[in-house]
Structure prediction request, 176 residues.
Amino acid sequence: MEEVNNNNSGQNLGIAALITAVITFVLAVIPCVGLIAIIPGIIAIILAAVGLSQAARYSSPRGVLLAGLIIAIIAVMISFSQIFVVGKIAQKANKWPKNIGNIINDVQDNVTKEIEDANVSIKVESNGNKVEINTSADKKDREKTLEDLEGAGAQQGDSIEKNDSIHKHVVLQKKK
Prediction:
């Protein structure tokens, strides 16, 4: 009765190693997930090695054990290769924040420069009344436009109610 058991010695470990090796291989070929395939790969290699030692002791068939061992070794090699790829990406990624920061600063500088040089023209027309406002980012032009508006409003009179506190504030600033 021992001979029947001895002929199949290591076969259960061979099946377990083959199943684990196939799962490891599937995990290993998936990008980013392949890194975790090292653990089941090592388990499959150990199962196959133990099974091969039992099969050699009792002269049992080794086909399933060898298949499990070979697939596990290939899967572990694929997993290790992903570690090197991730390492290379990490080395290159060290430079990315600096490059991104430089790009953001360049864009910010360009936008600021464009805004400083911008001229704005707003035209509103309603029921035959037209209002046009032209402005630029130049501070002297804005001050001149404000003075022109204040002078024109004082001479011609406004149809809009004046708020005395705002008017006094503008006059006080003008005197300084």
Summary: The radius of gyration is 40 Å. Residues 2-94 form one domain. The CA atoms of residues 16 and 151 lie 94 Å apart.
